[in-house]
Amino acid sequence: MRSFLLEVSLILFFLLKTTNGDVLFSSLPRSLFVVASLVEGRVLKAGEDDISVTFGSNQTVTNQADESYKKVKVKLCYAPVSQIDRKWRKTNDNLKKDKTCQFTIYDKPYERIVEEFKWKIEKDIPTATYFVRSYVYNDANEEIAYGQTTNNKKSDNLFKIQGISGRHMSMDIASVCFSAFALLSLVGFFVIEKRQAKVKG
Question: What is the DSSP string of 48-78?
Answer without folding.
Answer: T-EEEEEEEE-TTT--S--TT--EEEEEEEE
